[in-house]
Specification:
Order of helices and strands: EEEEEEHHEEEEEHHHHH
Strand content: 15-25%
Mean pLDDT: 91
Largest sheet: 3 strands, mixed
InterPro entries: DA1-like, DA1-like_dom
Strand order of the largest sheet: 7-11-10
Helix content: 40-55%
Number of helices: 7
Pfam families: DA1-like
Protein name: Protein DA1-like domain-containing protein
Number of domains: 2
Shape: globular
Length: 239
């Protein structure tokens, strides 16, 4: 397949870079901004087809088919729920999923900015329970699906855990769920997004993902999830 540069339209000469969609851009072009979702560079983010996504830029490819409305979300939610159920991650009580603001969300309780989804939980007589899930509007279907798979993981854990988990452990488990969903998609973007999760240097999401994944490779996912739910920790090595 012959690549065409996203800026000049010609075949890239010399070095070039690929977005998560595997769209090529000549390295010689100036970079004024990047698509926050796929990494595609732009000499001018005000060019036709580019749009704002929160305070960031979004490229034409990521805007095409994006999950912008609740109706869009309803078209994809059942597929993600079914895929997670096939992995054994199924909720006993349905949790409502809604779209929030157009752009990254802010988590006031932790002061963390830039998340794509939030699972609201509460403590009641029967323990923790997930009340609702919010996901940022304007995501690509792949980003939306991975984010929903992650948040369904929080809801699944809330139904089963007896107390709060260390953040790297809880987020690591949910990132593993998102990674499992992405692995089943088989698209270039899903593959690249999963690779970016594996390379993430964030001490909670990235380190947590690698920690949980390593435990799964060593003892198996059933052992890991059982230990997390019953003890609030990963299985002991050799245990």
């Amino acid at each position: 397949m012959t690549l065409a540069c996203t800026v000049c339209g010609g075949e890239p000469l010399g070095t070039y870079e690929l977005s998560m969609h595997e769209e090529a851009t000549c390295a010689s072009h100036p970079v004024a901004a990047r698509c926050t979702l796929c990494g595609r560079p732009a000499p001018d983010p005000r060019a036709p087809g580019w749009s704002r996504w929160g305070a960031a830029a979004r490229c034409p490819r990521c805007a095409l088919g994006a999950i912008e409305t609740q109706e869009d979300a309803r078209g994809q939610i059942p597929e993600v729920r079914a895929a997670m159920a096939a992995l054994g991650i199924e909720l006993t009580r349905r949790v409502r999923v809604t779209l929030a603001g157009h752009g990254p969300l802010s988590v006031e309780t932790t002061g963390r900015d830039g998340v794509l989804g939030i699972t609201h939980q509460q403590w009641g007589p029967a323990g923790y329970a997930a009340v609702s899930i919010e996901i940022a509007a304007g995501l690509t279907p792949i980003h939306f699906g991975a984010t929903l798979a992650h948040e369904l993981g929080h809801a699944w854990l809330a139904e089963r855990k007896s107390g709060p988990l260390p953040l790297p452990l809880e987020e690591g488990v949910c990132e593993v769920f998102a990674g499992a969903w992405l692995k089943k998609q088989g698209t270039p973007m899903a593959t690249r997004l999963r690779a970016s999760m594996e390379a993430n240097r964030d001490p909670i999401y990235g380190d947590g993902y690698r920690m949980v994944r390593a435990a799964i490779l060593h003892t198996g996912i059933e052992s890991v999830l059982t230990s997390v739910i019953k003890t609030g920790a990963l299985p002991r090595p050799g245990g």
